[in-house]
Amino acid sequence: MCGIIGIAGTKPVTDRLLEGLKRLEYRGYDSAGIAVIEKNNHVSGLVRRRAKGKIRNLEERIELEPADGLFGIAHTRWATHGAPNEINAHPHFAGRVGLVHNGIIENFTSLRDELKHTRDFVTQTDTEVVAHLIDEAMKSGLSGKDAFAASLKKLTGAFALGVVIDGVDGQIFAARRGSPLAIGLGDGENYIGSDAIALASLTTRVIYLEEGDWAVVTTDNVEIFDLNDTPVKRDITIVTGSLAAAEKGNYRHFMLKEIYEQPETVSHTLTHYVDAFNHKIKTPSELELKDLDFAKIERLSLIACGTAAYAAYVAKYWFEQLAEMPVDVDIASEFRYRKPALIKNSVAMVVSQSGETADTLAALRYAQSKDLQTAALVNVMSSTMAREADFALPINAGPEIGVASTKAFTSQLTALLSLAICAGVQRGHISETYEQKLIASLTQMPRLIAETLTLDDDIEKLAHDLSKAKNAFYLGRGMHFPLALEGALKLKEISYIHAEGYAAGELKHGPIALIEEGTPVIVIAPTDELFEKTVSNMQEVSTRGAKVLLITDKEGARKAKGMANDILICPDVCVETAPIVYAITIQLLSYHAAVHLGTDVDQPRNLAKSVTVE
Ligand code: F6R
Is the CB of 354 under 6 A from ligand 1? Predict the structure, then answer.
């Protein structure tokens, strides 16, 4: 997660860019930079100042070497591709183009290969190639605007961009695909920013770009185009009230905002575990897990509560399939009381968003008392679990305010899948070619999540029906069985509709008695080797009157045509990462059902965000 701000101004911009960057520092702070179009004696030129570390360092740099102008962009970085140093800091320059970027350009390697004979690349980032693309397009005769639009078409990934071009002063180009970007409307000036917080001191009038939008921002005009380059009008939101309200942006609830943050939060998690530039999973020593040797571990105990436990259940499949590592999953409140038979060379890994959940913490301490090596996979790195475990592993999802866990869940899954790949490589079960394939699948996830979010309107309609139900069932096989459990939990906790998740093959052993005319059954089944079997189970409930919603992909929809009442088609995704992408659909389904019922979505009854009692 990086932060972007830009000003098309009538007054000098540098101080204001720095002020905006400070507000964005929560999004990333391993380097920062600004680029402005300076005008001296009627000669204009693009200049930049960058510094490693906090924004303070950039300020000091600018004090020593001032730079100012009326147009500028700025960036605070959370490194994804390439070390956090000044060379990799944004803005990146290529010819006349200065560019800031948030997110991941998935196809940067192939684009770099296409350009490397004619262009000099100086950074290890995925970003630099975009600046070259735009500059190259202008060299072929396109205007700045057309070059920007043409370059966007060549990019795959989830990203937000801000661009200034030397000689095209007066215009800032901006684009949003998968990562957030807002436009601020000022008095004789206009702005771009990662969120309303960045723009808070500049304006209260904000346009949130929609997925695929791009824009040309000048001092007195904002032109917005959609994915097909058609000019569009977007609503203006007046951002008022407390900072907390501003943090919600134009989302009605924190939960919805957090669902929509997932292209970014997942890429944030990946940054920690994947060396995206070299297409490799990071080794335990690169992850600062000095003494952890997956090759020597005989058993992994994953211990957690609630949603975190369902992430652990999914991970069991990954560790077993990718690393052939035996895995136990325990509900934390049961772990120590069942007096588990623990074996010496095992690692106990607790999974917890907060890192403070009482049962999980007690399980961690119990494992330590039995001399097991312990690890804590947490979102809050200052938490008790992170401090007490032998190894602390971050998920980097950022603060989760909504009580129902959403972005922490997908980040837990992403971190656990990465660790399973790391274990598979260390245990010799993953070849180099397979590792590269898995890394490609991981880096595609932010984009695929963004694509899945575009199903929101369809899901909202489906949720209307679901909200009328008294009971609902979620079915899945393999890794989608725990996802079914999570789907049911999400629905119960925020909509108060009774819901159960089952392994699709298990229903006929009893619970099928509960199926009656109109009972909603949500079947999670991407096309994989278990698809046909899940479809058979789906038909078993269908013939007993269930109202079936099948969540699948194009191929699944084709195969199951006419067999489900409704089919929701997700993007094609590889089998290993499917649970992470499919998680978005069940989150949105519960969210809209709850909103329709008018419950308190962010603070559902009887629940607390961090459960610090046993
Ligand atoms: C459900 C939910 C809870 C938590 C559980 C564990 O949406 O949020 O089930 O997952 O209370 O909390 P952490 O992960 O903080 O240990």
Answer: yes
The residue type of 560 is: A
Give the ligand 1 atom nearest the CA of 408: 14
pLDDT of res. 179: 81
| Domain range list for the chain | 3-250, 259-446, 454-597
pTM: 0.83
| Pocket flag, ligand 1, residue 358 (CB < 6 Å) | no
pLDDT at 291 over 90: no
Which of 305, 335, 612 to mutate to test ligand 1, by most ligand atoms within 8 A of the CB atom? 305
Atom of ligand 1 nearest to the CA of 309: 10
pLDDT digits (tens, 9 = 90+) for 13-35: 999 999 999 878 766 678 999 99
Top CATH class of 259-446 equals alpha beta
Q: With contact defined as beta carbons under 8 Å apart, do 303 and 366 qualify?
A: no
pLDDT of residue 245: 46
CATH assignment, 3-250: 3.60.20.10
Comparing 3-250 with 454-597, is the CATH topology the same? no
| Ligand 1, pocket-test mutation among 350, 611, 612, most atoms within 8 A of CB | 611
pLDDT of residue 82: 80
Q: In this structure, which amino acid lies at residue 79? A: A
Residue with tokens 């629940």: 607
Fold of 454-597: Rossmann fold (3.40.50)
Q: Characterize 405-435 residue by residue with b for buried, 16 or more Cβ atoms within 10 angstroms of its Cβ, and e for exposed.
A: bbbbbbbbbbbbbbbbbbbbbbbeebeeeeb
